[in-house]
């Protein structure tokens, strides 16, 4: 039986933990809980204990519990430690290595995977201090899920700061435990989780430390005239998530993005472009790179001669005839480079039918190492959505991954890429 230690922080989202405990118990997990003093202002130890069927730990200096060094036992006996809600204050204390209450002492003493589910006001989440603490914890090996966007408990407040939903937490817990159980080769190519806090790598350094990762994201806009353009329906969420995941794994990251409506990832060098030709030039300038992930939805064609002024619609006149010419193929150009070709070139294939077959053909035609293929039919909700279901096509075959959030797809892909680079280094 797998053992989950749930550290409940002091936020309004603490009420979700009651449902989380119940859902985990239904799946056969043993759940023990630690509550901060602030958490007890929102839900009671009595309620938590009744649902978990375990004694709830609340005090570091508990005479009965500490007779056998209780905080060390709590830390060591868990297969995974989940911090939910992970408030701004709790994240700050974790990042600084505090151990002045039971929750932080347990987190400092554990060698298990730590999964944090942040929950706070959007202004607090976006504050440089919080983002700095998150980056430090990610470097230390702490895993994150969320926060999600939506309405806050405060009336009229919306933004990124909602704690991940219980179903998302359960799925993430299961996937992390499955990763650890599978070890170095589980069919998805995950690396062994070793060392403290579920860190990926057999050393203390982040998996992509010292590497340069190049990512393209978003659509390109090809002008018809100063007002109109040709574009693809890409939000940039998956590409930006890949850039953020690479940064969390310690890489130096260059993100080249077309026009999107989402924020630049923290700690990433970002170059904003409009057209396919501008994107190719920026990619060439950013080389060399160890990994290049081409997630952008680049327009295949552009207007040969865009209008200098707005093309006016004339009454009863024929529509203007637009002469289209092919844009440069950025993915193929970089994959077929003889000099300064990235060690690993990853392309994306957005398809609406025969997804895997089209992706396999694209991988061969463009001489790329991997293709990440997904179905972007309207009913899938992938374009602009928060989740994705992909197939990874390599020279060895095709892997179909379960549906995940785009952040989880990004992390899985980058961990797999880190393993590829490690094997490439060993074979030299």
Considering the protein shown, what is the CATH homologous superfamily of the largest domain? Answer: CoaB-like
Q: What portion of the residues fall into strands of 2 or more residues?
A: 15-25%
Structural class: alpha/beta
Biggest beta-sheet profile: 8 strands, mixed
What does the overall shape look like? Answer: elongated
| Overall tally of structural domains | 2
Strand order in the sheet with the most strands: 12-11-8-13-16-17-19-20
Work out the number of β strands.
21
The proportion of residues forming helix, as a percent range, comes to 25-40%
Q: Would you tell me which CATH topology of the largest domain applies?
A: Rossmann fold
What is the CATH class designation of the largest domain?
Answer: Alpha Beta
Straight-line distance between termini = 42 Å
CATH architecture title of the largest domain: 3-Layer(aba) Sandwich
Quickly count the helices: 13
Output the radius of gyration.
24 Å
């Amino acid at each position: 039986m797998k053992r989950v230690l749930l550290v409940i922080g002091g936020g309004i989202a603490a009420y979700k933990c009651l449902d989380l405990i119940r859902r985990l118990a239904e799946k056969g997990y043993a759940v023990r809980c630690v509550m901060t003093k602030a958490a007890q202002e929102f839900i009671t130890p009595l309620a938590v204990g009744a649902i978990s069927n375990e004694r709830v730990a609340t005090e570091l200096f508990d005479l009965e519990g500490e007779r056998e060094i209780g905080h060390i036992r709590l830390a060591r006996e868990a297969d995974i430690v989940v911090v939910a809600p992970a408030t701004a204050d709790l994240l700050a204390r974790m990042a600084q290595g505090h151990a002045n209450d039971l929750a932080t002492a347990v987190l400092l003493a554990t060698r298990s995977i730590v999964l944090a589910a942040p929950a706070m006001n959007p202004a607090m989440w976006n504050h440089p201090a919080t983002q700095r603490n998150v980056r430090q914890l990610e470097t230390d090996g702490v895993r994150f899920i969320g926060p999600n966007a939506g309405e806050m408990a405060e009336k009229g407040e919306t933004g990124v700061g909602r704690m991940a939903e219980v179903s998302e937490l359960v799925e993430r817990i299961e996937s992390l435990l499955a990763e650890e159980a599978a070890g170095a080769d589980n069919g998805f190519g995950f690396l062994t989780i070793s060392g403290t806090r579920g860190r990926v790598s057999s050393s203390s350094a982040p998996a992509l430390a010292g590497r340069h990762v190049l990512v393209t994201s978003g659509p390109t806009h090809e002008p018809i005239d100063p007002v109109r353009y040709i574009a693809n329906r890409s939000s940039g969420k998956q590409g930006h998530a890949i850039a953020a995941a690479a940064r969390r794994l310690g890489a130096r990251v260059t993100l080249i993005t077309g026009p999107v409506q989402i924020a630049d990832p923290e700690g990433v060098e970002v170059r904003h472009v409009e057209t396919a030709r501008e994107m190719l030039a920026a990619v060439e300038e950013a080389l060399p790179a160890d990994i290049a992930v081409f997630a952008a939805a680049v327009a295949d064609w552009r207007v040969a001669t865009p209008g200098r002024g707005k093309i006016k619609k004339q009454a009863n006149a024929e529509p203007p005839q637009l002469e289209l010419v092919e844009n440069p193929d950025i993915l193929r150009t970089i994959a077929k480079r003889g000099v300064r070709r990235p060690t690993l070139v990853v392309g994306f294939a957005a398809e609406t039918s025969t997804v895997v077959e089209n992706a396999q053909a694209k991988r061969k035609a463009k001489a790329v190492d991997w293709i990440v293929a997904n179905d972007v039919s309207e009913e899938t909700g992938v374009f602009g959505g928060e989740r994705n279901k992909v197939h990874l096509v390599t020279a060895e075959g095709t892997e179909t991954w379960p549906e995940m959030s785009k952040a989880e797809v990004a992390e899985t892909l980058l961990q797999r890429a880190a393993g590829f680079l490690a094997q490439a280094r060993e074979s030299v």
